[in-house]
Design brief:
- The chain is an all-alpha fold and 422 residues long.
- The protein folds into two domains: 190 residues, MFS general substrate transporter like domains (Growth Hormone, Chain: A), CATH 1.20.1250; 189 residues, Growth Hormone, Chain: A, CATH 1.20.1250.
- Helices cover 79% and strands 0% of the residues.
- It contains 17 helices and no strands.
- α2 runs antiparallel to α6.
- It is globular, with a radius of gyration of 21 Å.
């Protein structure tokens, strides 16, 4: 195993550094990558709601619907580490093209079987797992490719656009999936297949390579994974940031259910609950678009500490709110802050991580931060059952205060780089 390189790499001698810097909206390759991924994310999000609806229609069993959702999300927990090693070993653009082609085939199989009325639960679970696995590979490759498509000076702006794209896809794709399923069981999956073909076509027209020239020979899978984990462990700020993300994600996953119950307790109708989630999604999009402005003015340490304390205060406001308007405003503000954190940390991570390690380091941080999500869902349900919505919210507020305190005391966070000088 190669010893971890704890130094920030010099600017890579790649095509991005040599190209004349143009505004991001005129960067042809970035626009192709962004727009293709936007369409495919919209289709994927639509099927996220369509899968459980389809299984419910097939079986009438809520347990089977939950099982389908679990199987579809399982690759995100199991596969990032080996996927990250392969993303650093294989040509990333070619890998993404194959992922899109196979995901389109899987969605088309579901659509065809549903149209012919020959669909069964086993086929749904198999295709759902395969699509989830391919999405892990595609997402890691796309994220690792960004520094090779845009110049470093535009990295924060590019990531903010990607963040806005993902949040808009969730906000629009979920209701779209329900509408399409109402038209016909096969329709959302047919739309998903077409969205993957759009992404594939966009990738075919991109000129830049998605990785720097690789001179070293790839080692064994286990050695590659350990090298990525070892490099991350020897980066104090990134290691601390990953642990803080895990702690806040635990709170956010539990909060989703708690906020819904709290909203009904303070008088919100079912339509009001839906509006609350929609407003929160809009807050996330606004936060994504504002992230570069904050990144130019705040250092990493100030942003990390400030974001965690802001979440702690807003969590307390949610716990003490007595009307749906205050609750919705605080919940949307929490969603606004999230992208500021994601873009700042993501930009720093991509800049300091050597290109040959980007897939593995992204995978390691993803595994750590997303691995707590199932625990957060379970925690939210247990707190609601045992203590009620308001007490559960107070517990989550107390947890967030602990996370914010840990961020404030962490030496690596306080010593993090300041605001960029441009």
């Amino acid at each position: 195993m190669t010893s971890p390189d704890t130094r920030a790499p010099a600017d890579p001698p790649d095509a991005v550094a040599a190209d004349q810097v143009v505004p991001l909206h005129r960067n042809r390759d970035f626009l192709l990558l962004w727009s293709g991924s936007a369409v495919s994310q919209l289709g994927t999000t639509a099927t996220t709601i369509a899968y459980p609806l389809l299984v419910l229609a097939l079986t009438g069993s809520p347990f089977a619907a939950g099982l389908a959702g679990f199987v579809t999300l399982l690759p995100a927990l199991l596969l990032p580490l080996p996927a990250g090693a392969l993303v650093d070993r294989w040509p990333r653009r070619r890998l993404m093209i194959w992922c899109d082609a196979l995901r389109a085939l899987g969605a088309a199989v579901i659509a065809t079987a549903a149209a012919l009325d020959v669909l069964n639960l086993t086929l749904v679970l198999a295709v759902g797992f395969a699509e989830g696995a391919l999405t892990v590979f595609h997402g890691l490759a796309a994220h690792a490719a960004v520094p090779n498509v845009v110049p470093r000076s535009q990295l924060s702006l590019a990531l903010s656009r990607n963040e806005a794209r993902g949040r808009a896809a969730v906000m629009l794709g979920t209701p779209l999936g329900g509408v399409l399923f109402g038209v016909g069981r096969a329709v959302p999956f047919l739309a998903d297949a077409l969205s993957y073909l759009v992404s594939l076509t966009a990738l075919l027209f991109i000129r830049k390579e998605f990785e720097a020239e690789r001179s070293e020979r790839a080692g064994r899978m286990g050695e590659q994974v350990r090298e990525g984990l070892g490099w991350l462990w020897h980066q104090p700020f990134l290691r601390t940031a990953a642990l803080l993300v895990a702690g806040s994600n635990l709170m956010f996953r539990a909060l989703f259910l708690v906020a819904i119950v709290l909203a009904t307790d303070v008088g919100a109708s079912s339509a009001g609950v839906g509006l609350m989630v929609g407003v929160a999604g809009a807050g996330g999009v606004l936060g994504s678009l504002s992230a570069p402005w904050f990144a130019r003015r705040l250092g990493l340490g100030a942003l990390v500490i400030g974001a965690n304390w802001t979440w702690a205060v807003l969590m307390a406001v949610i716990a003490l709110s007595r009307d749906p308007y205050t609750l919705t405003a605080a919940y949307a503000a929490m969603w606004f802050v999230g992208p500021l954190w994601n873009v700042a940390i993501g930009s720093h991570q991509l800049v300091v991580t050597p290109d040959r390690l980007r897939g593995r380091v992204l995978a390691a941080m993803s595994t750590l931060s997303n691995g707590v999500l199932p625990i957060g869902s379970l925690l939210g349900g247990l707190l609601l059952d045992s203590a009620g919505a308001r007490s559960a919210a107070l517990v989550l507020a107390g947890w967030m205060v602990l996370i914010a305190g840990a961020a404030s005391l962490a030496r690596s966070v306080r010593a993090a780089p300041g605001a960029p000088e441009h």
